[in-house]
Amino acid sequence: MSGFFPRFDPITMGRTLESKKQIVEEIKGLLDKAEMALVLDYQGLSIKEMSDLRARLEPSSGICKVTKNSLMRKAINGNDTWSGLNSLLTGTNAFVLVKGDVGSAMKAVQAFQKDTKKSETKGGLFEGKLLSQDEIKAIAALPSKEALMAQIAGALNSITTKIAVGINEVPSGLARSLQEHANSSEN
After folding, report:
1. Is the pLDDT of residue 179 over 80?
2. Fewest Cβ atoms nearer than 10 Å: which of 4, 53, 78, 146?
3. Gap between the Cα atoms of 22 and 34, Å rounded
């Protein structure tokens, strides 16, 4: 009979209070660094698919954390910035936490959802504000950090080129005026 029923081992049967406290502290640390949080329903996703999502988020400084809603509640308890997540903490949730390039992370999540057709975004929080689905889509439509930097660099380059041309024109124009004046004095 002992072979049929697995041996009760309290270490493998659940998390200890100490390990739960460690998880809550880890989540608090991640939230302190994050600028945005998305809540995804991950039901039906395989380990391979979750690993794929994590890999897609890595370039934009995003992470995907799966934890119990009760532990997330404890992590956001008393934190005004993240308390808005409470309304989203039902069902099977994965939390995408982003620091840095929010637009690229959103694009990565949306591309992943389009490819797998298994996950949906329940909602998100950015700078303490609960985001609607339309706002989440609008953030995803923003250009990436690199694209914005390239646009700014291009604009600055254009301005400096115009300034340089303008500065070069001053002595050239002065020289032409002096030459015309000299020519008109000779006549």
Report:
1. no
2. 4
3. 18
Q: Which amino acid is at 155?
A: A
What tokens appear for 52 in the block?
């794929």
Question: What residues does 98 pair with on adjacent strands?
Answer: 36, 62
pTM higher than the cut 0.85 = no
CB of 57 within 8 A of CB of 96?
Answer: yes
Beta strand 120-126 with 93-98: parallel, antiparallel or unpaired?
A: unpaired
Structure tokens at 19: 């390990």
Q: What is the pLDDT of residues 39-72, one digit of tens each?
A: 999 888 899 999 999 999 998 889 999 989 999 9
Tokens of 70: 């009760």
Q: Report residue 184 as tokens.
A: 């008109």
First to last CA, the chain: 124
For the record, the structure tokens of 103 come out as: 């637009």
How far is C-alpha 126 from the chain's CA centre?
A: 10
- Written as six digits, the tokens of 21 are 């406290």
Distance CA 128, CA 107 (A): 21
Distance of CA 62 to CAs 67, 97, 98, 126, 179, Å? 16, 6, 4, 14, 64
